[in-house]
Amino acid sequence: MPQQLLAAIPAQSRTRAVRRRAAGVPAVSRLLVLSASMGAGHDSVAVELARRLRAAGHEAVRRDVLEMLPASVGAGLRAFYHATVRHAPLLYGGIYAAFFRDGAGPRPGSAPLAALAEDRLRAEVASERADAVVAVFHLAAQLTGRMRTLERLAVPSAVVITDFAVHRQWLHPGNDLNLCLTPQIAREVRHRLGRPAAACGPLQPDRFHPHPAGEASWRQRLTADDGRPPVLLSSGAWGVGSRLHATARLLVAAGYLPVVLCGRNDRLRRLLSKVPGTLAVGWVDDMPGLMAACAALIDNAGGQTALEALAVGAPVVGYRPIPGHGAEGVRRMAEFGLTEYAADSWQLLHALDRLTPDGQPPDRRALVGDRLVRGDVVGLLEQLSARAPT
Q1: Are residues 193 and 228 in the same domain?
Q2: 17, 173, 241, 385: most buried, per Cβ within 10 A?
Q3: Do residue 224 and residue 357 come from a single domain?
Q4: pLDDT tens across 28-82, in order?
Q5: Beta-carbon neighbour count of residue 242 at 10 Å?
Q6: What is the span of the domain harbouring residue 181?
């Protein structure tokens, strides 16, 4: 299948990889990975992708596409997104509907914004002597796709799509390869673009596995007082969520211990610490251990945190998601059968009671493994980068 997919990529002239093989030297690729400091999810995928490439003997350099924009445009874009999601979710929902969802007639897009980063990307590709560029953020995907279409980017480009609900800003026909979370998403992307797409599965560090080292100590800490089943509430790296106080009170009343992940939002942590029976925590380094020690995760975005919880064996319930990509991602994960979705408080408690009998999460690893295959992302990118021009 990978060979068939990549056969659709136009062949270049004699490649650096071919010359090295002819000389009996192992082919080493240099890949430029473009992420974005929007929360922590995209960066965590980029870090893991770079780690796997280096472990396979290749060279990988990460860059933030926001920093490629002129002056303070990138910082302003990040600050605006943060502020709207946190303080004006309805406004962000409207922006998402206009810019990210499909619709009839002309639709606004991010191509003009991506064009502002072209000069910097060309300079980075030349400086790093990159054989391929890998976008791990939708603005970066628009940038590389546009440049490939206009023949302003000589090396092939791939896109690692980190969302379950693939909005149109991820998709550009100029990109050579799209790497998706599931085979079903890959089929949908191929149908929508008419371009190669393959499933690579989630890109997570190996430390996210069943029964990680820190599980026992976290379990002892969380159940030392009254033995209530701990339930993790996610609010992302920025500590953004809808009515987290109300959800915490609901869980306390139902006999659970809400453990709220507040990320780097110290104000949220202080406020939630005042909710009786609630444990509010800031940035946590040992996420695998904490997740494995909890009976379930209540997720609000359908992103990396949910995937990490599934990897350690904790069930996930989507509830009160953030607007836009969060709401669509949470619902799409439930449609795939990976998680549950609760539309109201009754459904949330019913799901938790069913998924955590006696406070112990069921073993869902086999189910998750059937739906989230781990593809050979390195092998696919090796084939792609081997087509870089001399």
Answers
A1: no
A2: 241
A3: yes
A4: 789 999 999 887 788 899 999 999 999 999 999 999 999 999 988 988 988 888 8
A5: 16
A6: 2-201+373-385
